Automatic annotation (TrEMBL):
InterPro entries: CarboxyPept-like_regulatory. It comes from Sphingobacterium olei. It comes from the Bacteria. This is Carboxypeptidase regulatory-like domain-containing protein. Keywords: Carboxypeptidase, Hydrolase, Protease. One of its GO terms (molecular function) is carboxypeptidase activity.
């Protein structure tokens, strides 16, 4: 009986011209760098917004193009670029031209490499790196009055020239959205120059500190650097 019913279903599909491929939509697009040139080898993740750990993936070709078929469902598209910079491996999200979800009909989603800016939902955070600020035990200053100067040492992670940035903390503890690169940082509290070192280390405090963002500090943050100041 089951075989008989299956035969009827297949016959109806054949008569209507439907195929398995007709039941799938296509997600396609381009991956580009900041100047509009193609980025090859970018990982494209088509993530199911309902079921945990359920996704499809592909990679962009030499022209920066990709295409993947999706079944019926609720999906979001993401793009991740792997970059080696100063012997560190970074996983960086690219920026979508349209962050909206889509169904089994498919969609066009293009991605570009941005060094700064807020990531659109459902992602969170910023494309730039994070610097966290802490004080040496017993030294208590108003963190929001400390002025930090970041001088880029060479090109940034995307190969573009770096700049000198002057920043203060947004909440007394963090400086967000700094283009990922290698920097030398100095700090001033009012008229006083502070000394710096890597957080939670035995390094000697210095008036200037050169650092790379860490791709990951386990259980704490990604693409970040944690520093500590002293008088």
């Amino acid at each position: 009986m089951k075989k008989y019913l299956l035969g009827i279903v297949l016959l109806n599909m054949a008569c209507s011209g439907d195929t398995v491929a007709d039941k799938f939509g296509v997600v396609s697009g381009k991956t580009l760098d900041g100047s509009g040139k193609p980025l090859a080898g970018v990982t494209i993740l088509i993530d199911n917004s309902i079921f945990f750990n359920s996704h499809l993936s592909t990679r962009s070709d030499v022209n920066g193009s990709y295409m993947v078929t999706v079944p019926t469902g609720a999906w979001y598209a993401f793009a991740q670029l792997k970059v080696i910079y100063n012997n560190l491996e970074y996983q960086l999200y690219l920026h979508p031209d349209n962050p909206s979800g889509f169904g089994g009909e498919g969609a066009i989603r293009n991605f570009s490499w941005k060094l700064t800016g807020e990531k659109p939902a459902p992602l969170s955070g910023y494309y730039g790196g994070l610097v966290t600020i802490d004080n040496f035990p017993g030294v208590y200053l108003e963190n929001d009055l400390i002025e930090f100067h970041f001088t880029a040492e060479g090109n940034l992670v995307d190969g573009s020239p770096g700049q000198v940035l002057t920043r203060k903390t947004s909440d007394g503890n963090q400086i967000q959205d700094i283009p990922i690169g290698r920097y030398t940082v100095t700090a001033h509290y009012k008229t006083e120059k502070l000394k710096l070192r890597r957080w939670n280390s035995d390094d000697v405090f210095q008036e200037s500190l050169t650092f790379d963002f860490q791709p990951q500090i386990a259980g704490q943050c990604d693409n970040c650097f944690k520093l500590e100041y002293n008088k």
